[in-house]
């Protein structure tokens, strides 16, 4: 596509129907270079279908998707964890690199770099021996091996443990200038890495949230604060049960961090 100015991907009035059921209804998106778009919503609302249409795997019933020409042959795509079971992990990644017309030395360097970032240490085993989490890491590495300028990730943190999730999210955060769309059912996860979150329900966009850096840093700050002090959550509130010895220290810490204390209860 020629003559896109700021936008590199345009989704215009896109709908998708299968067997008389509307999966997507009049979706519109404008994505600029460097945007990190999170798509959130319950299972079955059309998130995966939207990524398949953007990637070219599915054709929309109506509407259009326009992608800047320079991106068409270099899109990183993670839509499934189903990998060839009898291949070694390293052979699968070499195959992914070959599909992207990478030279052997480029492939080897990229496998080493992505493998270190995502802590993939089992590439000389057959994929059929992998757990779901192990397969997920290799599938993600396959999508990232050519350092794509634009990438699509469908529920990329499913089956990853806490450490695996943080490693993947940190890896994406390091990729300055990369544009990506990532689906998730966890909006808190998306807050850490996205500058825009699109909420979808029943095949339609119901809300678009623009996130500035202050909001993102505040979210990370709160998450770390809650984790460090072992604070529990209930609804939109936080609470902590402490012994008598910890009361003064906890209150002082909260005051220093400018956290509002709504109530203090004494439980015998």
The N- to C-terminal Cα distance equals 69 Å
* CATH architecture level-2 label of the largest domain: 3-Layer(aba) Sandwich
What overall form do the CA principal axes indicate? globular
- Count the E strands: 11
CATH topology of the largest domain: Rossmann fold
Which structural class is indicated by helix and strand composition? alpha/beta
Low-confidence stretches: none
Give me the side-by-side strand order of the main sheet.
Answer: 5-6-7-3-8-9
CATH level 1 class label of the largest domain: Alpha Beta
What is the average per-residue confidence, as pLDDT, rounded to a whole number?
85
Continuous helix count? 8
Q: In terms of quaternary structure, what is this?
A: single chain
Look at the structure and name the CATH superfamily of the largest domain. Answer: P-loop containing nucleotide triphosphate hydrolases
Describe the structure.
The protein has 268 residues and is an alpha/beta fold. It has 8 helices and 11 strands. The protein has a 6-stranded mixed sheet, sandwiched between helices. It has a 3-stranded antiparallel sheet with strand order 2-1-4, with helices on one face. A hairpin with a 2-residue loop joins β10 (232-234) and β11 (237-239). It is globular, with a radius of gyration of 22 Å. The model has no long low-confidence stretch (mean pLDDT 85).
